Amino acid sequence: MDVTIFGTGYVGLVTGVCLAEVGNNVLCIDIDPHKIDLLNSGGVPIYEPGLDEMIQSNRTAGRLRFSTDAKAGVEHGLFQFIAVGTPPDEDGSADLQYVLAVARAIAEHMTEYRILVNKSTVPVGTADRVADTVREVQARLGRTVEFDVVSNPEFLKEGAAIEDFMRPDRIIVGTDNPRTAELLRALYAPFNRSHDRLMLMDVRSAELTKYAANAMLATKISFMNELSNIAEAVGADIEKVRVGIGSDPRIGYQFIYPGCGYGGSCFPKDVRALERTARGLGYEAELLRAVEAVNFRQKTVLFRKLNDYFGGELGGKTIAIWGLSFKPNTDDMREASSRVLMEALWEAGARVRAYDPVAMDEARRIYGERPDLILVNDALSALDGADALVVVTEWSQFRSPNFNAIRSRLRIPVIFDGRNILDGSLARAAGLTYVSIGRAPLKPA
Ligand code: UDX
Description:
Layout: E1 2-6, H1 10-21, E2 25-29, H2 33-40, H3 51-60, E3 64-67, H4 70-76, E4 79-82, H5 97-109, E5 114-118, H6 126-141, E6 147-151, H7 161-166, E7 171-174, H8 178-188, E8 198-201, H9 203-234, H10 238-246, H11 267-280, H12 286-298, H13 301-309, E9 318-322, H14 337-347, E10 351-355, H15 360-367, E11 373-375, E12 388-391, H16 403-409, E13 414-417, H17 424-429, E14 433-435
Parallel strand pairs: 1-2, 1-4, 2-3, 4-5, 5-6, 7-8, 9-10, 9-12, 10-11, 12-13, 13-14
């Protein structure tokens, strides 16, 4: 089938390449000529495991092309995926200008039936706004070409996006038109083989499902982070509590890891946007507001622990940081806890020596050259001349470090583990003080 994808960001690229992989003829459109040039010369603007190889093989096979020509895009695909950004505007609501600009472009160039598929995370009611926009343009141009607008939210995890697309838990299709539903069912058939994962619903329920999923996951994390602070106050160990409650299948073990807060492009933005949507309709979403507030505070927990440890004297100290991305297997630093920590440290007059397996270029792009940020090429080098080590992102490679090497390189033998991934008893045996989340610090015997 012929498919057009508007937007070659994270969601658009993954959607495009996975649809090409199963044999569709995919044309990806973006207004950014640099991005399209990069993709046409074999580059990939983002890091995602497996993406690069899949883009190259599908390009070579001729099933995946990139262009800035919106008209050609509209002519190409029966399916017109809208996968452009919906950045938060000043009050946290999703900014729909890019989505509606694509809707206008499609309306202008459309000469036969098209299905507009909303892949971007958009507030409930956006499909109707997209349809209204298309109708307005058509009225202005004096045309009536048939079209449908479908909500088909993505549930891709960064770092596992290809896998999530190729083997989805669910495929949500929101449309009131049975014919459109059948066309989407056919498009998704290769990803829906062993049992039926395609859930058909009305447009607004599909739109809300996306927000509901992310808000629920964010709530689980903030709940655990809140409990971790209570655990510290009452002298309990949050890790024992985590295992204790996770064993109840109604609660489950997933997404109940306490830490230094959630980041990324989805949870912070979506929780805020859902809260704003509700408020705009006269409903105060108390729980969502609390989820956000708890997360905001939790992102400062590492700074507070460091500040307490050093008795408020962080000026002139050098702090080693392991992990800059908001989570492992991505270079994405959007809303990352590392940023809150580094910025607070700089404010307090401290220097940072940081290492991340893939996000170093991203850190350079965000912060540029500055004397209080030294990016080093391996984890142990971050410790040279550092007064303390802080683990901020749960990369696998940080899980079993050589504690003796850490001990001998650090000026002050102390580790702050923002994700509870290290074995504190081994750290302690090597002569290190081990400070983690939701439990008492361990001091060398
Ligand atoms: C999320 C959803 O998982 C995905 O389904 C949706 O489509 C987009 O948003 P993503 O933002 O890529 O995906 O990251 P995810 O793996 O969910 O992690 C989000 C954040 O929560 C990370 O900062 C992670 O470190 C943190 N986290 C996760 C915790 O602090 N504790 C946990 O138990 C799990």
